[in-house]
């Protein structure tokens, strides 16, 4: 059965054109076509260079507001190393046609890392490590916490235990989670991407081109982002990724990162019936965790 949540509000092409006519009339006549739809947001291609990004569920509304605030602060450090981010070029406000905030962001060329061989992704593992070192800087005190991402592992223990009961064959997930719970807790609160799976990384010509979809951007434990290593890279790539962080993170952070990788794998393995590509990421992540524990 499908596991993706249903949309609570869907904007039509006519709705979006009216929204643009009010907010940016110079764009209202550009070609407009639905591009993609995720758990939280719908994306519409606008002309050759732009993308309209709209929440599809009420729970995503504060996330897009966080993204609108955070990206201008994060983007310069990534741009300095040639990695793009979808900084809004228009911050849209609720209208009669759409009840929530929305954004227009640049169209960024590239293909997602989803489905690419881990050996290919590993070629840019040092790039991602450097990108995260630049993202993981102290965040303002008033940045709202995400309900899940970047928090203490114990806050997700009940949900994780329920999933592990259905994944008894994946003993490595149990072991990684238990080790993470026993590790010292994070003593820093930095900006984190919060959703750094293969579908949110764009690759072009064998290099990391962009980090996209900052809907879950928040402040918290950087271990949550480091979990991407087990989702993306082969053993050599994971080694190169950690080496390229240049001891920015202590051993406890890496133990928590592996635990978060186990958590994300468990979500993908139990909630991706309608997304076999993401279910495959969950399975390969579990295999990577097991390989590192053997």
TrEMBL record:
<dbReference type="GO" id="GO:0016301">
    <property type="term" value="F:kinase activity"/>
</dbReference>
<protein>
    <submittedName>
        <fullName>Predicted kinase, aminoglycoside phosphotransferase (APT) family</fullName>
    </submittedName>
</protein>
<dbReference type="InterPro" id="IPR011009">
    <property type="entry name" value="Kinase-like_dom_sf"/>
</dbReference>
<dbReference type="Pfam" id="PF01636">
    <property type="entry name" value="APH"/>
</dbReference>
<feature type="domain" description="Aminoglycoside phosphotransferase">
    <location>
        <begin position="33"/>
        <end position="260"/>
    </location>
</feature>
<keyword id="KW-0418">Kinase</keyword>
<keyword id="KW-0808">Transferase</keyword>
<dbReference type="InterPro" id="IPR002575">
    <property type="entry name" value="Aminoglycoside_PTrfase"/>
</dbReference>
<dbReference type="InterPro" id="IPR051678">
    <property type="entry name" value="AGP_Transferase"/>
</dbReference>
């Amino acid at each position: 059965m499908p596991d993706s949540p249903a949309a609570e509000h869907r904007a039509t092409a006519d709705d979006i054109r009216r929204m643009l006519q009010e907010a940016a009339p110079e764009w209202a006549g550009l070609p407009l076509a639905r591009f993609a739809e995720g758990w939280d947001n719908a994306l519409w291609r606008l002309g050759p260079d732009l993308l309209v990004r709209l929440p599809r569920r009420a729970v995503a509304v504060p996330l897009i507001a966080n993204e609108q605030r955070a990206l201008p602060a994060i983007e310069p450090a990534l741009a300095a190393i040639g990695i793009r981010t979808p900084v809004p070029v228009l911050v849209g406000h609720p209208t009669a046609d759409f009840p929530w905030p929305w954004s227009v962001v640049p169209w960024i060329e590239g293909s997602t890392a989803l489905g690419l061989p881990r050996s290919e992704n590993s070629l840019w593992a040092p790039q991602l490590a450097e990108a995260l070192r630049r993202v993981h800087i102290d965040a303002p005190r008033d940045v709202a916490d995400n309900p899940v991402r970047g928090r203490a592992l114990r806050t997700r223990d009940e949900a994780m235990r329920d999933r592990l009961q259905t994944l008894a064959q994946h003993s490595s997930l149990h072991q990684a989670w238990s080790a993470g719970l026993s590790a010292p807790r994070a003593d820093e609160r930095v900006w984190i991407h919060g959703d750094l799976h293969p579908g949110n990384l764009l690759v072009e010509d064998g290099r990391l081109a962009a980090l996209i979809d900052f809907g879950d951007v928040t402040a918290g434990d950087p271990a949550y982002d480091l979990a991407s290593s087990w989702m993306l890279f082969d053993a050599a790539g994971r080694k190169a990724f950690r080496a390229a962080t240049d001891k920015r993170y202590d051993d406890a952070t890496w133990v928590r990162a592996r635990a978060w990788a186990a958590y994300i794998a468990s979500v993908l393995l139990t909630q991706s019936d309608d997304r076999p590509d993401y279910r495959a990421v969950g399975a390969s992540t579990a295999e990577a965790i097991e390989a590192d524990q053997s």
